[in-house]
Amino acid sequence: MTLHSALEKVLSSEMFRSWISLHSKAFLAHAFLMSENAWQFGWYNPDNNKITTFIVEKDISKIENQEIFSTGEPVKPLPVDKVKVTETIAIQKAKEVLEKNYNNEQVLKIFLLLQLLGELPIYTITFFTKSLNAITVKISAIDGKTASHTKSSFTDFSRVTTQQL
Question: What is the pTM (predicted TM-score) of this model?
Answer without folding.
Answer: 0.88
